[in-house]
Amino acid sequence: MIEAVNLSKFYGDFAATRDVTFTIRQGEVAAFLGPNGAGKSTTMKLLTGYLAPSAGVARIAGYNMATERLEGAKHLGYLPENGPLYPDMSPRSLLRFFGQARGLSAEKIEERLEVVIDLCRLSTVIGKPIGKLSKGFRQRVGMAQVLLHEPDVLILDEPTAGLDPNQIREVRETVRRIGQTKTILLSTHILQEVEAMCNRVIFINEGRLVFDGAPNEFAADERNIDKRFHELTTTR
User: Fold this and answer.
1) pTM here?
2) Domain-embedded: residue 157
């Protein structure tokens, strides 16, 4: 469902990513790990078609995101870090707006509104201005927006960044519920997210893929996750 084949992005002589290759199958929830500046966000932007690769191919649900982006986007929900929302709109009006922008019928929008409001637990704030909501609720609004058109694939960039422990717990529960039926690539630098939400680990450092496997292959337990992270970012 998500495929990166020798993905590279160069800015002059600087390689933001170089020859990144991996495949995420239907139903997998993959943690995308790496230190700050490792190339995680760049890779995600390449996968979504937001950036064009200097070399290689990115595919979503089989569609080349450089040449078939509109078709691929029908199967994709993308939540960038600090995703933009309209603060003067309510979650309900925002979701209706995005549903119309995606060409959904009025009946389909109302049907999907009920589903995503329940899934993301927005009923208590659905009519309030987004600008008045906590960051945790704003993240849930962003999640509802990317789920509105029933995508098969979700790409989430640091969905728990800047949240307090209670908000992190809420977002993790939402991702776990969604992950029962979707394919998810989840970028994070919070190592505990691996055990909490994921069944696959993809690790990138200095723009290169350095690990791809199961969480128990990455580290036997939470105590060893920090040690493993250090090993992969200090050895070449």
Assistant:
1) 0.86
2) yes
Phi-psi sector, 179: left (phi>0), alpha (psi -120 to 50), beta: alpha
Give me the phi and psi of 45, to 5 degrees please.
-65, -35
Other Cβ atoms closer than 10 A to 52:
12
Q: How many C-alpha atoms does 74 have within 13 Å on its Cβ side?
A: 8
Residue 159 shares a structural domain with residue 62: yes
Query: Is the separation of the CB atoms in 195 and 215 below 8 Å?
Result: yes
Q: CA 150, 158, 70: angle at the middle one, nearest 5?
A: 40
Which position has the higher pLDDT, 142 or 191? Answer: 142
Query: pLDDT tens digits, residue range 96-129?
Result: 999 999 899 999 999 999 999 998 889 999 999 9
Q: Do 181 and 202 share a domain, yes or no?
A: yes
> Largest alpha-carbon pair distance within the chain?
55
Domain count, the chain: 2
